[in-house]
Amino acid sequence: MSDIVLKTENLTKHYGGVHALQEANFELRKGEHVAIMGDNGAGKSTFVRQITGVEQRTSGKIWFDGKEVNFTGPIEAREAGIETVFQNLALADDLDVPSNLFLGREKVLFNLGPFSILDRKAMRKATEAALVRTAVKIPNLSSTIRHMSGGQRQCVAIARTATFASKLIIMDEPTAALGVQETAQVENIIRTLKENGEPLILVSHNMRQVFDLVDRIVVFRRGRIVANLRKQDTDGNDIVAYITGAKTGQAELQAA
Amino acid sequence: MSQTSHGIGGLSYDAKKRPWPAEFNVFLALVILVGAFELIGRVFLGDSFLFNTRENVSGLFNEQRLQIIILQVSIVGIIAIGVTQVIICGGIDLSSGSIVGATAMIAMSFAQVATVNGNPNPKAMFIDYGWTDLPVIVPLLVAIGCGLIAGLINGLLIAYTRIPPFIATLGMMVTARGIAKWWSKGQPISFPTDSFAAIGKGLMPVVIFISLAILFQLILTYTKYGKHCYAIGSNEDAARMSGIKIANHKVLVYAIAGILAAIAAVVLSSKNLTAQAGMGVMYELDAIAMAVIGGVSLSGGRGSIIGTVIGSLIFGVIISGFTFLRLDAYYQEMVKGVIIVGAVVLDQWRQRRRAIGA
Question: I need a labelling partner for A76 at 20 to 30 A (CA). Which of A135, B3, B83, B103 fits?
């Protein structure tokens, strides 16, 4: 049990009469990279939002890092060690890279409450270290996010999650808006995270990417988890069959 | 060939193509403006705007004019410092001029002398209570208290009722002006103590303005408070997701703006040796204009105190320049309006060009 990072039991979310997520049972082990796939509206993002505390679940239980948790907001989830890279990047355009990395958790030289003096040198150094660790390439640390390409922004957002020795990283379609080269760069970062043994949940539509990067694939359909397959036990056609509903996974799930 | 160097991860970048600070452009505008007045003066009036041309006065520059340029903008400049941090944080403060009026009236009534030329002070508000000839700290604390309360009300309204800053501070603008008029039923309040009068004497307003400007430039650059101002103005949702307590921060920002308006009120009423209900009318707009001319973006996230100080100097140069050219004051207002709009248009244009270039 101790190597389970995240576990959900009968996680359910209803929006009024819409059953967006029903009785999702999910497990993630240390160092494991899992992809969440499914059609639009299948419940992928809803699932992520319950885990990260952005929304409050209707019923079910969540264990994180060995404890049962009830996050009332995304900040609590982050403090517990769940870092999320959202589809809409949560970066401040007018700040430079170190300021964005340390936004809301600045290193300070003297603590004077809100007027605490920032330790800019230390934050810059830590930023350089984080970028090296995640193999993120940024031309110039002191240029503002406004002057960066979509890929560079995404890399900064990912480097931020990796900076704070998080226990779980969740990425919601990190390459959806990126070009080929930028996508490759983000995928390299994800491989680096894998080598560092950091667990990851990757929400993605990109079949090639998923088979390249992760250990296990979980498929959502109509608010339910319909498949939970190790990469070597499946292939693209199989996954598509689950996504479209040509194949239903209840039998396999019970067998597993 | 421009020299390229390598950043983190080995991507090359051209250090020369780094966007230079916006303040540089503003400073350039100031220099051009001064140069224009100098040129027009030399050609049409045979006089120098900037340099000393009188035989009986020593010195290279026309020091008197330089002093007037900065002295006449330093009081509104103090307000502009507070307004700058409000705008950087994504807000706006229309109430500062009225806070100056109300604070000047209230504070001055605690700074009055008991006797004028041997007779009881005819204007003393609290002579019946014996609250005259009080130490200078009393009116100072009263003033800061007034500014703090007004600023706190602004901040709490904006942070917790979520009404737009424009509306909240517009309400405060009207209310505070009403308080200023009601306080002495429209009568001016005069005859301050010598120690209160010393605050705004001579070049003291300039000293206070520059000291506060340096203090707030440092705060905005080197403290958590400053960083969070830029973050909230830049992307409020991102700041919230990062765990910054947006509501608390906004209350603090508006409270500080209120206190700075109160300090301006003390300096102004001390300099004029009187407080009147109409004091500070339109100061809020002048302060906003100084910030905007100085490169502070009205959409938040960008700008600096240095920019605002240069913006205030541009203001001062325009006023002095028009006086120097012996043009009517009416033209000043017209040109001021054109420059405010021009500064914003220029900023927008520069931002768009930069976005395309990047």
Answer: A135
